[in-house]
Amino acid sequence: MHGKPGVILFAHGSRDPRWVEPFERLRDKLSAQRPDADVRLAFLELMTPNLADAVANMASQGTSEITLVPVFLGQGGHVRRDLPALADACRAAHPGLALHVSAAIGEDDKVLDALAEYCGRMIDGH
């Protein structure tokens, strides 16, 4: 394998520039935990880079393996329908690249446990 493994945190995007702040914090936390990986953000719409541009940029830097993590709580049409088509287009554009798409973060019990724990703290701390 050439270069660092790539990780793309794939989020929806918004017209409000402040919307991206927690995603940037997540990227920075993951980068700190995994200095061996190249961690990037990409967006479905309204923000740049989009997925195709992020993948192309990483591939041009020699990344041969990318894990794409959809940072979505719910599996709406965007994740179920749009994302597989976008991922397939990236694979077609970069035949030497291994692109793995994980389940959306909201599908994972440990993620939901952390959210439930936060909500419980809010009950006690209001």
From TrEMBL:
Keyword terms, alphabetized: Lyase, Metal-binding
Any one Gene Ontology molecular-function term assigned to this protein's record: metal ion binding
Listed name of the protein: CbiX
Organism: Pandoraea horticolens
